[in-house]
Design a protein that fits this description.
The chain has 261 residues and is α/β, with parallel strands linked by helices. It has one domain: 3-Layer(aba) Sandwich (Carbamate kinase). It is 36% helix and 19% strand. It has 8 helices and 12 strands. The protein has an 8-stranded mixed sheet with strand order 3-6-2-1-9-11-12-10, sandwiched between helices. A 4-stranded mixed sheet has the order 5-4-7-8. A hairpin with a 3-residue loop joins strand 7 and strand 8. Helix 2 runs parallel beside helix 8. It is globular, with a radius of gyration of 17 Å. It starts with a strand and ends in a 6-residue tail after the last strand.
């Protein structure tokens, strides 16, 4: 299984470099309580990666030397957030191992073109839990860019033959309208990949250089079309992630090929 912890769930997204320690610890407890051990965890950047990446325009690629400082600062910030997540998982007795995407992936205009997955596979073979994150990576054409956690999730789900994908968001799932702007927005409980273009989904309002909910849905559509179900739920509601990991009934959106929307 591949699990994505949204950056807006594990950080205070409106305040740069501020983690939500209570949420991180609670989510770690829910992961441990689920009993799931064949797991890859990927987390977003939230207020750690996105503001720095935006400041230095990292997602646009190399344009001038000062961006190299931004590349370094963005990566270091993501490493700090990753340490908090890994330590929380370790505190719950889980064999979590940090794995920086900067050292695993090369992109071409933002899309993964080369991946060195031997370390990740070796961790899994030893029953460890690799913990990756959205990161800066080197790019064949742009020099460098941002590789989103969502893109990593989609790539790994397909490359590893995942049974399913769970995404813990700061909203309950996918809506017909932005639930932050429209109180009457309705949750879509079942969604087909071909229906995604017709959906206006609720996503993060703060800076997000990786494309927000629209990009998330595009990435996960590839996974669903390959036969891997994807479930979106709120990581902010206590107990949701635990139920989702166990496959129990919980409020959210199931993205699956052949489902009726």
């Amino acid at each position: 299984m591949v699990l994505k912890l949204g950056g807006s769930v594990i950080t205070v997204k409106e305040e740069p470099l501020r983690p939500d320690g209570a949420a991180i610890r609670r989510l770690a407890r829910e992961i441990a309580s689920s009993g799931i051990r064949e797991l890859v965890v990927v987390h977003g950047g939230g207020s750690f990666g996105h503001p720095l990446a935006e400041r230095y325009a990292i997602h646009e690629g190399f344009r001038e030397p000062n961006q190299l400082r931004g590349l370094a600062e963005t990566h270091l910030a993501m490493e700090e957030l990753n340490k908090l997540v890994v330590r929380a998982l370790l505190a719950e007795g889980l064999p979590a191992v940090p794995l920086p995407p900067f050292s695993c992936f090369i992109t071409k205009r933002g899309t993964i073109s080369r991946a060195f997955l031997a370390p990740l596979k070796a961790i899994l073979a030893l029953k460890g839990i690799p913990v990756l994150y959205g990161d800066v990576v080197m790019d064949e054409e742009l020099g460098f860019t941002i590789l989103s956690g969502d893109h990593i999730v989609a790539y790994l789900a397909l490359a590893l033959g995942a049974s399913r994908v769970v995404l813990a968001l700061d909203v309950d799932g996918v809506f017909n309208r932005d639930p932050r702007r429209y109180p009457d927005a309705m949750l879509i409980e079942a969604l087909r990949p071909e229906d995604i273009s017709a959906v206006e989904a609720g996503g993060a309002l703060a800076i997000d250089v990786t494309g927000g909910m629209a990009r998330k849905l595009q990435e996960m559509a590839r996974v669903a079309l390959a036969g891997v179900p994807v479930f979106f739920t709120s990581g902010r509601r206590p107990g949701n992630l635990l139920k989702a990991l166990r496959g129990e009934k919980v409020r959210g959106t199931l993205l699956k090929a052949g489902q009726r929307a």
